[in-house]
Predict the 3D structure of the following.
Amino acid sequence: MSQKVALICGMTGQDGSYLAQFLLSKGYRVWGTSRDATNSNNTNLIRLNIVNKTKLVTMDPLDFRSVLTTINHVEPDEIYYLAGQSSVGLSFELPSETIQSIVLGTLNILEACRMSAKPVRLYQAGSSECYGDVGKNIADESFPFKPSSPYAVAKASAYWLVDNYRKSYGLYACTGILFNHESPLRPKRFVTQKIIESARAISEGKIDRLTLGRIDINRDWGWAPEYIEAMWLMLQQNEPDDFIVATGHSHSLEEFISIAFQSFGLEWQNHIVQSNEFYRPSDIIFSQANPNKINNKLGWRAKVMLPQIIEKMIEKQYW
Ligand code: NDP
């Protein structure tokens, strides 16, 4: 069998780097994109020791010419669209960039897939944020979307674009509706990494306190390297479909803080300060997932749960 070729859009990010490593281990030839491959931040690829095993090319998802040229040049069997502005908080500051990179980026990829002479399968990085606050409910794939940030609105639009292109043009295209997933590759702008690095700095006497916004929010946190396999599995089926990817267990941010600070021998109450300054214009309090569909249909199940995730982030265990 000839070697499969994958194109990972947004390969320098957390998921892109893990996915590249995973696909290399499966024998794929791996190409990745960055908006500027010459000046890209390759830290994650270096940490995973795969920078020389992959090919990074410049592609701007907003520039259709660059998308089409890249796909025609690489001739991938599988495309993973992971690029775009990925922070919910930042999407309130950069709504236009967020909407464009996620919605127009997905649209350009879908159009280029339609024009590709070679049949290509597409994975699109959806998000649990599309559901908004689920209250006392548990979201499954049929739960209605109620997005409450520019990021979530963008992800909901991208989801419907994929659904529409699949039904209208018969494309093999899937959305993974991923709940939060963490690793030591998470940038510090994300609250989980911020908590761990601040607890470390407090334990070393470098700082005394950490200021946060709401800590009563609940999220389903999983281990990023495991979620990569779920993305790949979605593209190996007979028929394309969308799947929630989650552990099925939600925890409050306060629990996250408590476990992380305890690991450093600290009482979190002595060091956490809450400030309105860090409140988002709107936030999701309850987020809870039912991953039965992916458990049963693809045989995928999350194994690493929150205490272990925190431990691995503290120890900087990449996998
Ligand atoms: P990252 O932010 O780590 O990586 C995204 C990559 O996209 C970056 O490396 C960057 O590459 C590129 N990018 C950033 N901004 C833009 C932009 N404005 N236009 C085009 N490209 C841009 O994200 P993750 O790896 O954590 O997530 C991957 C995907 O999965 C994202 O789409 C994210 O929204 C989604 N997702 C992530 C979840 C999580 O918990 N991690 C949960 C649910 C969904 P470069 O600068 O090299 O171009």
